[in-house]
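Entry
Fold in token form

___
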Amino acid sequence: MLPERLVRFRRPIVLGLHLLLVPIGYYCAFALRFDFDIPQQYREVFWATLPVVIVARLASFWLFKLFRGWWRYSSIADMTATIKATIVSSGALLAWLFLTGSYNGFPRSVLLLDCAGAILLFCGARLSVRILREEPLWRRKQADRITAIVVGAGDTGELLVRAIRRNHADRIVLKAIVDDLRWRQGMHIHGVPVAGAVADLDRLIDRHGASMVMVADPDLSREKLRRVTDACLRKGIACKLVPSIQELGDGGDAVSRLRDVDVEDLLGRPAVDLDLREARKQIAGSVVLVTGAAGSIGSELARQLAALRPSRLILVEQAESALYFVHLELQQSHPSIEVVPIVADIVDHTRLSDVFATYRPEFVFHAAAYKHVPMMEANVSEAIRNNVFGTLNVATQAAQCKVRRFVLISTDKAVKPSSVMGASKRITERVVLGWPLLRSSGTDFRAVRFGNVLGSDGSVVPLFKRQIAQGGPITLTHPDVTRYFMTIPEAVKLVLQAATLPEVAGRISMLEMGQPVRIADLAENLIRLSGLVPDRDIKITYIGLRPGEKLHEELMSCVEETVPTTHEQIRVVKTDEPDGAALARRLDELNTAVRHGGTQDILDAIFELVPECVAPLRDRISGRGGAGTVGEQPAAEVV
């Protein structure tokens, strides 16, 4: 390999090497033909034809752009081009011999020997440079090199092994690959053996003294990923994940894209796999409006909607600083889309009316809401004002502007609500699906429920990480609390998928969310992923359920059932709703209580709209529960 200071002279040096190798290969062909004792007459033939061979070879190599490549990165394509260039140049020599009448005095076997020898010589030279780069003998004994094992012998695993052998062999030594497909075991990938299955990982780590495991199997189940992670944690070594080939579609280096295993990767259910082709067909070229566009869900909605290529994306948000950064991000990532930031309060009728009249959106995704359960227990009137009447305001504007489709972002906390926040979201579902003006407007109103989202503002994972960084303790409400979990991208994909299913029109849809996850297990996994031991390095303390919180979330209430849709992971909720007149009367009573009554008046009005609410909200409405306060000790809030 060339020293760095000679890189700018690479092409002249490469040309010089070819000028040296061409005569050597040509002479070897004569030598082999005559058993290394070339008669004088054929020596003269050699010298007479050598200039022709040099010109033909160099011209052919230039034609096939072989002087432009880096030998250290030689690939199958380079070898193929070298073979073609050599055959073409040999053909040119043969043509010259015929045209000049020199063919009869030329040893014919030399043509074949020269062609074959040149292929071996030039391909071998390129391959040798690559081998020296990928297997630098003078660095093999460095003590700081990483000894690694790869999980996955598929396409992603092959890509990772190739990237390491090509660009990182001086610091990473691959000892083995593990894969649970039996027919792959015993194979070698770029010289690295597939030495067993995931169950053999502990043994292989010990045998090879591995200091890192790289997971390169995008189809690895969550259960097996936990096994891999547990093995790494037991051995005290690093565990890294490689993005899938689709995520590496830009051709990026797989090694540079390695990341730590995060708690989201260990969810106790399969990841959601949704097809957004229909959403892309409907959204492309449309005007789309997102409320709450700087929040956790709203901002991810904006990102995924932008990828569907709307003509204009309207971002409505009350928090102007957060909106600024989301707007800046989308402008940079999607310069061809007009992204319009709107600072507005969804309760402000005049402001919203102006926004809808100016931009005439065709799709509205309503994500704006107050979501923190204990905080809303202490701010009942504001929760109802924003979540219920803010939603009614947005939906009314959508109906008046003849919006094509309105999608409400709801939550599983609306099922048998135990909190003011959950009850407010159940009321918003009834508003958008049952308000008389909306039902007769021609706009397709629908709602989407999903579980808790990992990584959202104020949720468990960011709080746990902060507490771990501070040395603990992690504070949990109860050792048996469980929740249904999704990642933010999964939740948003669900929204976009449900927004396009025809059978969801005018209804509530929800995701098949698998089994609930115990929050204490989530905390312990996060501690272990930080390289620490639960209750030894980081203490876990329990402070009791907070106002409005349930021990376990539910997916259906006593007045609901679900039916399947054309997508196996989405179901439609069938629920009994009050008639439009009764809904309007009760909302008027709720509005009066918010404007002129006290907290108990609001709670009584909530019960009229959500009679299926459960303790502790039902106890609070009946006067048996406390008013609820937000404690000073932060705990895991699951939102």
